[in-house]
Amino acid sequence: MSLQDLLLLIHVDPSVVPCYRTALSALSSNWEIRPIFAGAFSSAYVQLASSLRSPGGHLLEPLLSYCGASPCESYRRIVAVSFSAGYALVREILSGPDARQLAGWIALDSGHAALTTERMPLDVHMDPFVRLARRALAGEALLWFGHSDVKTPQQGPGAFASTTQFGLELLRLLKAEPTEQPTRFVSPLLVVKGHDLRQDDRAEHIAALREWGPAFTTSALAALDGVAPLEVARGTAQIEGGDGPIL
């Protein structure tokens, strides 16, 4: 009997899960879906990680127990999908000894960092994701980053990088030249894609979870399965699995 795959939907209410289950039914792989919701802000996910982390620093195994999943060894692959503040829990996993047990990260307008005095995303907040991106470039993991055009405060004590800034900084740190806008296709397993569906910022942000998120997630997992062509999201350009520069 083949092992099942596990999809962790982080910062997602269970009521949204059926939308993702329906979208993923198009895949040949069999994904168990487990939602995790700890609170409104990223700090809630840092606190959750602190409360679950073992004395040896391991987080993934206790997290699976927390959300009702089976032990890590029961799954072929474990992929995290984060919406909004959920990126903080992914960062906690990627910063510890379990990082390589995560087969991938799919971001749905989810990825922020504190800003330096030069208004650049702070390296220490970017580093865990850069390491995952390098694994994606090597064909060892998945990183699909979908962002909106919602702006964030850029000055003062509450300043932080927007998801657009986060995605661009990720590419800059990888020394990867973006291809066509709004899709920056680096390799089949590393994609940064911008979305602009709504005028209202809140509606634009929610669209990441409820509108383009299911298709984006399905396409990312299809890329992980090596399926081509891949639809990046909702009627946009097609990406052929073997095409595109590996930078």
Structural write-up:
The protein is an alpha/beta fold and 247 residues long. The protein has a single domain (4-239), classed as Rossmann fold (3-Layer(aba) Sandwich). Helix content is 33%, strand content 19%. It has a seven-stranded mixed beta sheet, sandwiched between helices. Strands 8-9 form a two-stranded antiparallel sheet. β8 and β9 (238-239) form a beta hairpin. α5 (123-137) packs across α6. The model is unreliable at 229-247 (pLDDT under 50).
Total tally of structural domains = 1
User: If classified by CATH, what would the architecture be?
Assistant: 3-Layer(aba) Sandwich
Largest sheet: 7 strands, mixed
**How many alpha or pi helices?**
8
Can you count the beta strands?
9
Shape: globular
Say what the CATH topology is: Rossmann fold
H/E series, N to C? EHEHHEHEHEHEEHHEE
Helix content class? 25-40%
Strand fraction: 15-25%
Tags for this model:
8 helices; alpha/beta; 247 residues; 19% strand; globular; single chain
